[in-house]
Amino acid sequence: MMPISGVNTGAAQPLTTAEKVLGAPRVQKPEEEAPGRQLKPVMDEYIPEEPQKPSGRYWVGKDEDGQPKVYFDDPERTADAPRQPEDAPGAEEPKQAGQGSKGPEGKKDKDETWECNTDKVDRKIEKLKKKQQELKQQLDTETNEARIKEMERQLAQTEQELKQKDNDTYRRQHATYTQLS
Asked: Is 0.90 topped by the overall pTM?
């Protein structure tokens, strides 16, 4: 290594000396550069991609009504299948993956409106809850051993049935759908 004291300091000249040198280039300020020339605005350029092969992926997009929809890019898709919407990623329109359908048969028209009614299912569940409560009360007051065992069996059966029916999935599956328009 070379000590700092041995570095040539003659390379750095004061500013006044540099201006006096004949070969020194003149530094232009931006205003002086080209007064009549306008700078071209920098713009991004769209370069379309080649259609890609289907890869078997799922993604969330929006359907014609703006509702969320799950798309599937099926690699085993036939060549005569319809094209996908412009805003969806990938090259082909994927199959619908079980969401966004209206009505019990999965029909989908813009003019159709369906109503879901779960009143019948709710009444069944209320009846089961009432039966469960009555069996618990009778069980607390019963003294006959044979009758107690029979009530415990009925109570267990009622609780199992309630557990099976008192959920949203059961309500949706057993609901009544009616077409409004």
From this structure: no
What is the C-alpha to C-alpha distance for residues 66 and 89, in angstroms, rounded to an integer? 16
- H helical segments located in 87-167: 119-141, 145-165
pLDDT tens sequence for the chain (181 residues): 666 666 665 555 555 555 555 555 666 666 555 556 667 778 888 888 887 777 778 888 888 888 888 888 777 765 545 555 555 555 444 444 444 444 555 555 567 888 888 999 999 999 999 999 999 999 999 889 999 999 999 999 999 999 999 988 898 898 988 888 6
List the structure tokens of 55. 């890869």
Residue spans per domain, the chain: 54-100, 115-179
CB 165 within 8 A of CB 124: yes
CA distance 17 to 171: 92
